[in-house]
Task: structure prediction
Amino acid sequence: MPNRRRFRPLRSGGPMGSTGQAAPLESTGAVSAVQRRRPRGIYLLPNAFTTAALFGGFFAIVQGMNGQFQTAAIAIFVSMVLDGLDGRVARLTNTQSAFGEQYDSLADMVSFGAAPALVVYEWSLKGLGKLGWLAAFVYVAGAALRLARFNANISVVDKRFFQGMPSPAAAALVAGLIWIATDLRETRWIDAGGPDLAWVACGLTLYAGVSMVSNAPFWSGKTIDLKRRVPFVVGIAIMMGIVLISADPPVVLFSLFLVYGLSGWVLWGWRVYTGRMPPRILREDDD
Result:
């Protein structure tokens, strides 16, 4: 008789169950070990800049409620600078994360959505009654839709342009008007009891809110490579730009962002006129 091998049933405590199938991975403790090894922290440096930008927006709201409108406008501009730094820092230090992206969007909604709308409402729109708070709401809704659409888009065919005005630029338009008006009145360039700017503020607020949800292409600046060498004349131009802004910050900054706020519509009209459509955005459901 040939020798027959005896097959012993595997114990349930081993890697194979009594039926010969693989036991669940949880029984071996492998999943818990992987979970213990998975880092649960967040990157400190880029999120610190995002937190500072969020604080700037919150501080602007508080100052607007206290009637310190010039301080509130400056706080929004400072928040805009900090918001531009957190993404750059994350890319330079290779510390991008899904948490940082979501946190940045929530901070932008406060700093560039709620804060400018509330400050401009307290500054001038309150006197227009229902039209005033409706204009402020259009701006807030435009900022929320702009951020939601930006997060839903996977990639952009032409990364040189945004689809719609970015929320920091829209906030700079509204805050720039507040800053330049309060600064001119305090320096007596115009009479403190001059014509009310409520209708100008209402129109600019509506324009910024609609521009954020439009399809007009606005230059993104993502093609600028900070690691690439540039000619010496570029350094001189940057220095002159800093001097120009320092000479009269409210007038220069508001003028720059006003030109930027019009540039997207001008480019969109030119492309429609010449038959070139704006850059198409790839959605999540696109192939």
About this structure: Confidence is low (pLDDT under 50) at residues 9-38, 188-195, 281-287. The longest strand covers residues 161-163. The beta strands are 155-156, 161-163, 217-219, 281-282. The domain at 44-282 is CATH 1.20.120.1760 (Four Helix Bundle (Hemerythrin (Met), subunit A)).
